[in-house]
Design goal:
Layout lengths: L2 H5 L24 H7 L4 E6 L8 H9 L9 E5 L13 E5 L7 H5 L5 E3 L6 E3 L9 H5 L6 E2 L6 E2 L16 H5 L5 E5 L6 H8 L15 E4 L9
Parallel strand pairs: 1-9
Antiparallel strand pairs: 1-8, 2-3, 4-5, 6-7
Pfam family, one: Fer4_11
Protein name: 4Fe-4S ferredoxin
Keywords: 4Fe-4S, Iron, Iron-sulfur, Metal-binding, Repeat
Length: 229
């Protein structure tokens, strides 16, 4: 990646935010490998905070499978302040990662098309070759989950293991590694998929839905009263 590619943005004008809606047809369940080929899905995930124990096995699996360098992370599990009184102390754990928004601000502000939403899966991803390091997508993301990869110097984030596990017909590394099955991944366009069933059966919330981003990461709250929208 050359300096000249990055410098072309010098003196760029204001960034205009827009919105859009991507429609996808609901079809029957197929394997993940087939999904990558026929392009009819809308992938999403549920993090069940009642099952998460904060072990960070998901974070380490993500780092290993996707070759994420030390010092940055595509996925973090954040622990709350202690709740209750000794000896009945409890904690809540929540996932912080890309929300794979249906209306993704990062995609709309990218001047080179490096930030994009995969039409086959609905996954929001980054083309490292097209990225010029302008930082617009980092600033536009309301969840603040993007970072600059220290080796490629391009924007990076969770891609649901699109280029690794998913391409091989596997579940994302975080899902495969979770010892308590707190993570569920699948096609939100398939009403019979496990992830769709879970969303209809459980009380769930999504972060910052008031912004109209339509995040595809759902969370089962640890306690009643934690519903955020």
């Amino acid at each position: 990646m050359t300096c000249s590619r990055r410098n072309f943005l010098a003196g760029a004008g204001a960034v205009i935010f827009t919105t859009g809606v991507a429609g996808h047809a609901a079809l029957g369940r197929k394997t993940l490998a087939a999904t990558m080929e026929d392009g009819t899905k809308r992938y999403g995930m549920v993090h069940d905070e009642t099952l998460c124990i904060g072990c960070t096995a998901c974070t380490e699996a993500c780092r290993e499978v996707n070759k994420v360098p030390e010092g940055v992370s595509r996925l973090e599990i954040v622990r709350s302040e202690p709740q209750g009184e000794y000896p009945n102390i409890d904690y809540t754990f929540t996932r912080v990662s890309c929300q794979h928004c249906e209306n993704a601000p990062c995609v709309y502000v990218c001047p080179t098309g490096a930030a994009f939403k995969d039409p086959e899966t609905g996954i929001v991803d980054v083309d490292a070759f097209k990225c010029v390091g302008c930082g617009y997508c980092l600033a536009a993301c309301p969840y603040q989950v993007r970072f600059f990869h220290p080796e490629t110097k391009s924007a990076d984030k969770c891609d649901f293991c699109r280029k690794t596990n998913l391409a091989e017909g596997k579940q994302p590394a975080c899902v495969e590694s979770c010892p308590t099955k707190a993570l569920t991944f699948g096609d939100l366009n398939d009403p019979n998929s496990e992830v769709s069933q879970l969303i209809t059966q459980k009380t769930v919330y999504r972060d910052k839905v008031e912004l109209g981003t339509k995040p595809q990461l759902y969370k089962v709250p640890h306690q009643k009263g934690e519903i955020k929208g």
